[in-house]
Every structure is written in C-alpha cells, then in structure tokens.
Design a protein that fits this description.
The chain is mainly α. The chain has five domains: 3-77, Orthogonal Bundle (Arc Repressor Mutant, subunit A), CATH 1.10.10.10; 84-165 and 177-200 and 229-236, Arc Repressor Mutant, subunit A; 238-335, Arc Repressor Mutant, subunit A (Orthogonal Bundle); 346-425, Winged helix-like DNA-binding domain superfamily/Winged helix DNA-binding domain (Arc Repressor Mutant, subunit A, Orthogonal Bundle); 431-529. It is 60% helix and 8% strand. It has helices at 3-17, 19-31, 36-43, 47-59, 79-83, 88-113, 118-132, 141-153, 205-210, 238-257, 260-273, 289-295, 304-316, 337-357, 359-371, 376-383, 387-399, 427-455, 457-475, 480-487, 492-532, and strands at residues 34-35, 63-67, 73-77, 116-117, 157-159, 233-236, 287-288, 322-326, 332-335, 404-409, 419-424. The protein has a three-stranded antiparallel beta sheet with strand order 1-3-2. Strands 4-6-5 form a three-stranded antiparallel beta sheet. Strand 8 and strand 9 form a beta hairpin. Helix 18 (427-455) packs antiparallel against helix 21 (492-532). It is globular and about 85 Å long. Keywords: Antiviral defense, DNA-directed RNA polymerase, Nucleus, Transcription. Residues 7-65 form the RNA polymerase III subunit RPC82-related helix-turn-helix domain. DNA-dependent RNA polymerase catalyzes the transcription of DNA into RNA using the four ribonucleoside triphosphates as substrates. Specific core component of RNA polymerase III which synthesizes small RNAs, such as 5S rRNA and tRNAs. Residues 349-425 form the DNA-directed RNA polymerase III subunit RPC3 winged-helix domain.
C-alpha cells in the first residue's frame, strides 16, 4: 500500500462519509486488521463512534471482519474497494446507456446505500422518477421491477450473503460475529414480488403550509403486513461492470485497428461469453463460426463466407486478440483476454511516453519492446537516431523508470569494459509505476476541486439561495419582473466568477474520469498478469 493510495483513500472516505469514518478507515488501511477496542484506543475515538463508523464501512463493503482464536473479532479495510468509489459515476452512466433511467437510478441507490432490499429500491426509484415527470404522470412499480430483474439477469446486481438459519434448540453460546454465506445458484435469483402501485410525489411547500403541521399529521402504518423480501439484500456487482468496461475497451481497440465490422464480430463474441466466462479468465469459452454467425445483430447483413474471412483475418493479426482453437463447427475461436489487456496497457505506456518525451522516444520504446534487449549502439542503428540524442532519450526514460538496464558481465569482476549493458522494458513494473502516478494525479485533482469550491463557498451559497427563492416564486406564479429583480441580486462580476468556477470544476471532474480510465486498464493488466505468474 503506497502513500499515494492511502492519501487517495483518505480523500474519498472524507468526501463520501465525513471525518470520523475517514479517520477509522485510514487507520485500518495503515495498520491492517485490528480489534474494536484497539481501534478506539489508537484513534482516540469513543467506542460508540467507532462502532457506528465500522457499521457504515461494513455496510458499504469497505471493511470486512474475521473471527480469530479466542473469539476475537478483527476488522480489516479493503483499500481496493475504497478506490472503486472513484468509478461510481462511470458505473451509473454505463447503466443509463444500457438500461435507461430506471436502471441508472437503481444502481445509483444501491451505490449510495451500500445494500438495499429490492422492494425498497423499486419504491425509492419509482418515487424519484415520478418527481421528474409532468403533473398527472407517475412511474409504475412494475416497470422499475422489470429493470431490476434485467440487471440481475445480466449479473450487474447480486444478492448479499446472509446469516444462515440456526437451530433454535442449540444450547451453545452465540458466535462473537455472524458468518455470512450464500449459494452461488441464488446470487442472481430475484424474489417473486407482487409490487403493485405507482411512485408518489413529495408534498410541495405550499401544500404543507395549507395542510396540517407535520407533527400533527396522522401516520398510516400497517405493522401487520411484513415486507415481502425482508432480509434479502442486494448490492452492485462491480466485477461485472469491470468485465463490461474491459469488453468495451477491446471492441474499441479492434475498431481502431481494423474496421467497424471486425469490432462488431468481437462484440458479438464477448456478448456470447459474458455469463459463461468468469471475469478473471485469460480466455473466453471457444465459440464456433456457426454460433457467431447466428448471434450477429439483426440487420447486420454479412454472409457466412465474409464472416469466416474476417475471423481468419482477426486470428492472423500480430496482436493475437483472437485465437483459433479448433476446426469443428466451421472453426472454433477464442478471445485472448490477457493478450488484449497487455496490448492495451502497452499502448497506454507508449501514449504517455509520446506525450511526455516526444515521438522519437516513443519510437525507441516500441523498438526496445519489440526486440526485448538492445545495446545503446543497436538502438541508435535500428531507430536511425544520432548517438547523442539516442543516449539522452534512453537515459531520460531510464531515470523515469519506463526502461531498465540489464548488466551481462563477460568476466566475474564486472569490469565496465567487459560488460554488456542491455536496455529492456519490463511492462509490468512500468505499468505499476504509471498506476502509482495516476493515483497521485487523482488525489491532486480532488484536492484542487475541493480548494476551488472552498474558495468560492460564500458565492455558491448565495447562488443556491437565489435559485431557491426563484423556484419558490415560480411555483406561486410570480411575475417576470419580480423574478428578474431576484436574479439581479447576483452581480455581473459574481456571475462571471460562478461561470469560471463551474467551468474549472467540470474540467477537473472530466480529468478525474479520464485518469480513472487509465487506472482501470493498468489495474486490469496487472491483475491478469499476476494470476498467470
């Protein structure tokens, strides 16, 4: 765990959950697993606050607990899971593109709340969608339920582990902490609920003013009717989203290298393998040419012969994204996911070198990557770059850890005159170094955004007050002149300052998302490589 990762985790926890949760979370990240009383003592926080903070972190899957010998329960932070909070906007946007507004809000609610029952999610989402609709229109629970079922069928949401039912006749003492279990067959099994109803709008302020005071309103609660899916909680399956992002990156890479038809064929193969292939597998399941042809999108008019030509072309490509594993069924093909991720990570490194050091350095980097090991004189000759420039470029990349130097002595004394000095590229270590820099960049972007917001806090609060006044006046049917007078409370220089702030914050947000895309590719490559070692 590097300092850059710890700092980024600290910023994310503080932004999402506040200071107390951030203090407990960062302490666990730094120290590893610890029991409750030690956490309270080391952080100087009251036992009650530590319990509440741990409850929040466990509920959001950011901390796990284990029962050790002598029945001591220890809590351990999941740093990698904390860093996933960076990707929340991307998860939500992806769901919106795949499953429209209902799916977007379902995933948003589950991410914000950690775990929820299906009935609670459906009602909350229906209410939120009804709020955005025109007067007289409402969102039906059944429509939101359908979107939830589709998300579960495609494994984007999954059930949380449950406490197994215990035998009440067992006289032994209860365990110090419950053990959560779940059957893999039930992970995506949606309970049969008959949710009948429509989303409700919140009462507007003028209705509240005209009606009874809130404290005196009678509460209509029916304690007899149990919640239909009580105890069955759901959470977002982040691994499934990562599988989708990886597939999209591979499809995009094929489209850039070849053409749209090739990318559509690869997309079809990945879609057929979505549920059958585990997200960590190095290859997809073998697919026959006939199966691929039958699964192509409706209206995609290419003949079987043309498809076979495209598959042969993809299989013969030097990048080896597609491999041929047999000849039955018109030919069996697999997607080499590990090689695809390695190619994407290498392309990312090349792009960074080109942006930082120029195209000549990128040419040298590609050359060394291709030839594996090269002496300085060989680099000069192959790259056709003058000796002085080649030397400067090699040393520059060496000092930035994009390259490494390997010594091969002719004699045991390691005399420089009798030693070969070979330049080589260790893609794994270079990817790790770049990933570390990405974490630092994201932390800097978040700090800058917080600074910009804090500096203009007074102006932002004033703008929000004015907007609230205008909204309430519009609801009561105020005249245009009155609204204009309220708008003039913010002067022209202040309005310009607000526009600049908005533009800067939008740029910082977009930069965070772009850096996170690089982080995802590098993390996926490193994880895939470590599993093969």
């Amino acid at each position: 765990m590097t300092q850059a990762e710890i700092k980024l985790c600290s910023l994310l926890l503080q932004e999402h959950f506040g200071e107390i949760v951030e203090k407990i979370g960062v302490h666990l990240i730094r120290t590893g697993s610890q029991p409750l009383r030690v956490i309270a003592h080391d952080t100087g926080t009251s036992l009650d606050q530590v319990k509440k903070a741990l409850c929040v972190l466990i509920h959001h899957n950011l901390v796990i607990y284990r029962v050790h010998k002598r029945s001591v329960v220890e809590y351990e932070a999941q740093c990698s899971r904390v860093l996933r909070m960076l990707r929340y906007p991307r998860y939500i946007y992806t769901t919106k593109t795949l499953y429209s507004d209902s799916g977007e809000l379902i995933v948003e609610e589950l991410l914000l709340n950690g775990k929820m029952t299906m009935s609670a999610v459906v009602k909350k989402v229906a209410d939120r969608l009804t709020e955005t609709m025109e007067d007289g229109k409402t969102m039906d629970y059944a429509e939101v339920s359908t979107a939830f079922v589709r998300l579960a069928d495609t494994h984007f949401v999954q059930r949380c582990p449950l406490v197994p039912a215990t035998d009440s006749s067992d006289p032994g003492p209860p365990p110090p902490a419950p053990t959560l279990v779940i059957n893999e067959k039930d992970m995506y099994l949606v309970p049969k609920l008959s949710l009948i109803g429509k989303g409700k709008r919140r009462r507007s302020s003028d209705e509240d003013a005209a009606g009874e005071p809130k404290a005196k309103k009678p509460k209509y609660t029916d304690h007899k009717e149990p919640i239909p899916d009580d105890g069955i909680y759901w959470q977002v399956n982040l691994d499934r989203f990562h599988q989708h992002f990886r597939d999209q990156a591979i499809v995009s890479a094929v489209a850039n290298r070849m053409d749209q038809t090739s990318s559509e064929i690869v997309r079809t193969m990945l879609r057929m393998s979505e549920i059958t292939t585990p997200s960590s597998a190095p290859f997809t399941q073998p697919l026959s040419s006939n199966e691929i042809f039958r699964s192509l999108p409706v209206g995609y008019n290419i003949s079987k012969q043309v498809l076979d030509q495209y598959l042969t072309l993809l299989a013969d490509d030097p990048l080896e994204f597609i491999g041929k594993s047999g000849d039955s069924g018109g030919g069996m093909f697999v997607i080499n996911l590990h090689k695809a991720l390695a190619s994407l990570a290498t392309a990312t490194l090349e792009s960074v070198i080109q942006e930082r050091f120029g195209s000549r350095c990128a040419r040298i980097f590609r050359l060394v990557l291709q030839k594996k090991h090269l002496e300085q004189k060989q680099v000069e000759d192959f790259a056709m770059i003058p000796a002085k420039e080649a030397k400067d470029m090699l040393y520059k990349m060496l000092s930035e850890n994009f390259m490494s130097l390997q010594e091969i002595p002719k004699t045991p004394d390691h005399a420089p005159s009798r030693t070969f000095y070979l330049y080589t590229v260790n893609v794994l270590s270079a990817a790790r170094m770049l990933l570390h820099r990405c974490y630092k960049s994201i932390a800097n972007l978040i700090e800058r955004r917080q600074f910009e917001t804090k500096e203009n806090k007074r102006l932002l609060e004033k703008s929000q007050r004015v907007e609230a006044i205008i909204a309430s006046m519009q609801a009561t049917g105020a005249e245009e002149v009155q609204l204009q007078e309220i708008e003039e409370m913010i002067t022209a220089p202040e309005r310009q300052q607000l526009e600049t702030l908005k533009r800067n914050v939008n740029k910082l947000d977009a930069s965070e998302i772009q850096v996170d895309e690089t982080i995802f590719l590098l993390e996926s490559y490193i994880e895939s490589t470590m599993k093969r070692l």
